[in-house]
Design brief:
By secondary structure, the chain is an all-beta fold. The chain is 0% helix and 43% strand. The chain has no helices and eleven strands. The strands form two sheets. Strands 1, 2, 4, 5, 8, 10 and 11 form a seven-stranded antiparallel beta sheet that branches. Strands 3-9-6-7 form a four-stranded antiparallel beta sheet, with no helix packed on it. The model has no long low-confidence stretch (mean pLDDT 87).
Length: 178
């Protein structure tokens, strides 16, 4: 391909030019991408690992997050993904103290990442805040990702905090372009 030198005084910005070449190695598409949150509190039994049901979508342009049945992200595209979750766990009764609490990221039914808070006799509280941010590689179009939570309290049960206007607990992911 020959390159012709263009003099600035001969360039007419009102003209249109047809591009007939091919550009490679530029850009990319960070889809699929989704973001969801809990719109109300979700009760989980004391000392029981429970799937968090992020039931309200903010964005899911490729329909890769199920917010009504399985509560899971299925990218349907191989590659690297940045997955984020933040979950607030709270005692259902304010006086009952949280002993231990965790959240996990599961891939295809197996734990692959964890955020944990251990209680002890001198520093127990009635809630636990978790933030998890992980890069994963999906090498199969049927891979899926879910968030599970666990809370143990001195008495009663635990709930995943949810709110219709404030995102106390949320889950999101997007493809990473390398």
């Amino acid at each position: 391909m020959a390159i012709t030198k263009i003099q600035s005084e001969s360039l007419n910005l009102a003209d249109t030019y047809a591009f007939t070449g091919t550009v490679t190695g530029a850009g990319g598409d960070n889809k699929p991408v989704f973001s969801a949150y809990r719109s109300s509190n979700q009760l989980i039994s004391d000392a029981t690992i429970t799937k968090v049901q992020f039931n309200t979508e903010i964005y899911d342009g490729q329909n890769t997050y199920d917010n009504s049945t399985n509560y899971r992200f299925t990218p349907a595209s191989t590659g690297y993904y940045l997955i984020n979750a933040n979950v607030s766990l709270m005692s259902t009764v304010g006086a009952n103290l949280m002993i231990d609490n965790y959240i996990w990221l599961y891939e295809n039914g197996s734990q692959i990442a964890i955020s944990q808070n251990y209680g002890n006799s001198s520093s127990k509280d009635t809630w636990g805040q978790h933030n998890l941010s992980v890069i994963v590689h999906s090498d199969n179009v049927s891979d899926y990702y879910e968030i599970f939570a666990y809370g143990e309290v001195t008495s009663g049960d635990v709930h995943v905090a949810g709110n219709s206007t404030v995102q106390f607990s949320s889950f999101n992911a997007s493809k990473i372009i390398l």
